[in-house]
Amino acid sequence: MLSIPLMAQTIISGIVTDIKGLPIAGANIYLQGTYDGSTSNDSGQFYFSTDETGDKTLIVSFLSFETFELTTQVTVMNKLEIKLREDVNTIDAVILSAGTFSAGDNSKVSVLKALDVVTTASALGDFVGALQTLPGTTTVAEDGRLFVRGGEAEETQIFIDGIRVFTPYSPTTNNIPTRGRYSPFLFDGITFSTGGYSAEYGQALSSVLLLNTIDEPDQNKTDIGIMSVGATLGNTQKWNKSSLSVNASYTNLAPYLLLFEDRNDWQKPFEGASGELVFRQKFNSGLLKLYAAFDATNFELIQEDINIVEGVKFKLNNNNLYFNGSYKGVLSDNWSMSSGLSYTYANNKLGIIDNAIDNTENSFHAKVVFKRRFNNRFKLNVGTEYFATKFNELFESSAIQQTPLRFDNNISAVFTEADLVFSKKMAMKAGIRAEYSEIFKQFTVAPRISIAYKTDKNSQISLAYGDFFQQPNNDILKFNQDLESQQTSHYILNYQYNWDGMIFRAEAYFKDYQHLVKFNTDFPAFNSEFNNLGDGYSKGIDLFWRDNKSVKNLDYWVSYSYLDTERDYRNFPSAAVPSFVNNHNFSVVGKYWIDSFKSQVGLSYAYATGRTYTNPNEVGFLNATTKPFNNLSLNWAYLLSPQKILYFSVNNALGTRNINGYQYSDTPDVNGNFNRRALRPAADQFFFIGFFWTISEKGTDNQLNNL
Amino acid sequence: MKRIITILILAFTLALNAQSNFEKGMQKAFKLWEDNKLNEAEQFFERIAAAEPDEWLPNYYVAQINSIKSWNENDLEVVNAQLTKAQDYLNNAMAISKDNYNILVMQAQIYTNWIALDGRTYGMKYSAKVTELYNQAYALAPVNPMVILSRADWNMGSARYFGQDTKPFCKDVEKALALFEDFKPELFHPNWGRRRAAEILESCNK
């Protein structure tokens, strides 16, 4: 009785094709949980017999296609016509690329690789420096921050593991470029978006920079770096489910300045100490990361000033603490979540001439995002976040004792975003973000959408639109909180062409600025009258070309940006081109590996047209332009052994005497002329020598990826 | 009572049957492989893997076949898909069998394939991991000839790249070759590398 059904054989047969009906040869067809199955032949047909009975699941799978499943009576599994859908997650599928530069491994998507960020000659180990070689950024050499598509530096926000960094840059003073606070050692994913970014990110008018800390370090190791400007020491310990990386660095410019004097009269050269720590703990279905960074910097100098004969005395003491904890986990087959919080404490003590300023910012950010995956083609995110800032400033001078300036700024937000993949050729992301600002009692709604379409095997076009809101910065809010959010709308059209180690991107954009803050004094102050009546526009074209295949061991990229922008904001009497804008920016970065010398030599060249300044000897506002900016930087990394690297670099090798702007005297001379002083970099050239040594049990790792 | 015994016998027979099914299946898959029907062998291993959720071996072989197939493939997208598939199946194997030196070695080889595919992108990312994996495998199985051989092979490649002497690793290969003499892995367990060891040793003695 038992043996009868076991003996009965059923024939399973059919044909496997793609959506267009073309046969798929070599597909794997089988009954789940059994060994019964077959392979489709050249015309897509298959045929096999089974002893199974009743309801079974037939599986049809083929590389780069979505697996097909059919559960039914085996007796009806004959003459089946099975159409397989292409897997939309494969490498050749369309990607949403408008506005975004990713640095990662996925060679198709990324424009820069993580390694590039730190092997660019002009960057001097600062990842912000490397991003300045990408199109869409402008050359503001004396500042060091990212100015994106006609936006001010503060319009770019930086996030670590999805959580906002409130004070990403080391504070500095006029004409001394700042650096990113965080060491490139600890990050492995960098996404730089110059517009049209996801609804997950708010409070940024122009751009976001997303940094992800390394999930799992490779091995236990100690990194030692000795540099002409200081030293670094790092250590990584790995355990079964957790790991800890610590990194400490000390910078002191005194010895360097003894050898190469610059234009500043340093009373106490720049000195900084910083420490970073990353702890990671793996759980069965999630990963917890804790990141903490502390840094303290101080310096004191006298800077030349045309109106003050003895110069301007400037003193700064900064302490900054940043803590960030994030958790990413899988909740079920289709649900996952990520959450995090950060806390920032930043204290600046400044002395300017005989005025003392002491300000403290305490900021907090918490965020949680849930992700629901319906299938390969439809995913939905829902999230909420809260930002809280407490700002407090004391100002003291011999003349006035001012009452403390303080404000609390809290923002709550919700956002949701859908990812839709229609086919391998077409994908869309649509989202919406709503924010409520307690300080302004203002509610804003920002839609974002981006669509990409693959025009052929190697090229695609993308479109993006988005509204972005951002509050005025602390320098304004500390004087006036009766304002509203500033706003931009981005319209982006992107074309991308990829071909075996080469990538070409062209992007055209238009940005419409509304509700920019205006005031009626030279700088924001007590007696300023503020309003939100400013506006502006910015439009341009960004081109990017990268090639690492045509010449063996040579990798290079070329960027060009054209920017046309005007804005009427701050104390502008009318719409004008702001002084941080270059109309044309051109840059080339090249890296060449010389195998026989175990060396990588690099070059980077930047050219930017002049920037505006106001010449009071003539009529008008921002009525003149400086001469163009030129910088050629060179570097050389030499591998002494797999674990020891010697590194040299020189910034502005040709010693071009660049001018960033002019300072005019407040009063005319006897002839009625306003005299001026050129604002030049503190030093035209900068040299850097470093020795980097990695000590690990395995003896193969090195810090080349840190240079 | 009779009923219970019948059920017990039935259950027992079915268990035996399942066991022999696995063996028969594996034998058939290896036969296909020997006959150079690589795709059919791979698909058979996939079926076994799907039917036997507690067996790491079929998953391991799907990973290995995809890894091997990627060597002779020129289409970058296909290589990418193959290595991704290899990694997926190796992840399954890893989930079934923890601290398995065979799986660690295969993981190192998949990473090595990525490095071979695009050294500029993956060299920095994976080379330290590969070294780490071989060291882990060696700690688990210090007398396994496949582990010793793969580790020596990788170390020689690294040394060659940095212009260092590869000779110190020759004695490891020699040792591996000697261990292969008496190497008798369990049924269906990985068993490869003799020819490679002989090849390397030949170049050592030149």
Automatic annotation (TrEMBL), chain A:
This is TonB-dependent receptor. InterPro entries: Beta-barrel_TonB_sf (IPR036942), CarboxyPept-like_regulatory (IPR008969), Plug_dom (IPR012910). It comes from Paucihalobacter ruber. The keyword DNA-binding does not apply. It is found in: Cell outer membrane. GO terms for cellular component: cell outer membrane. Keywords: Cell outer membrane, Membrane, Receptor. Residues 123-203 form the TonB-dependent receptor plug domain.
TrEMBL record, chain B:
Residues 1-18 form the signal peptide. The keyword Signal applies. Gene3D superfamilies: Tetratricopeptide repeat domain (1.25.40.10). SUPFAM superfamilies: TPR-like. It comes from the Bacteria. Keywords: Signal. This is Tetratricopeptide repeat protein. It comes from Paucihalobacter ruber.
